[in-house]
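Researcher: Go.
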Amino acid sequence: MRIYKLNLDVDNYESCFIEETNISEDIFDTLCTATPLSFGNETVHFRYSGKDDKKIGDVLNCWDFCGYLINDKFCNLLATNNKIQAQYIKFQKDFILLNNTLVIDGLNSAKTKYEYFENDIIGVEEYSFKQLDYPPLFQISLPNGYIPIFYFVTDEFIDIVNRNNIKGFKFEKIWDSEKD
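Model: Structure:
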């Protein structure tokens, strides 16, 4: 099994900015912490960054917050996979926020090399994972309970992306069970 850090291909695909919103900053601060979000009549209006040479992918980076904006096609693919635990929040016609809600205590602490600030773990320099049956999409928790903002994916997620010609991602391989 291989695990990848999920990144967006901002070099080749369009990004966006928030043009206006009535959503509280607290909600944006909660994104990527695997916390279910509650929305009422909030609205968000986006504008593309305006780079003429970039295509619009199936996933979109928003420079104003941490999160993944996906289109209907990709949302429908993910929503039908019962291994993926996520919310799909429609902000406006073309944008659905993918909010992962699954955190796994999956790091092999004996082999993982952590980043420290003073005596606190603040990140990971080199990943090593426990031998588990990982879902296609998830986040991890560090030993101190901190949840990094990154989403992690497995080969199963990449197969979904490739089989369905989903555009806009980059995958950074960070762990291979056969080499650990």
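Model: The chain has one domain: 2-104+138-179.
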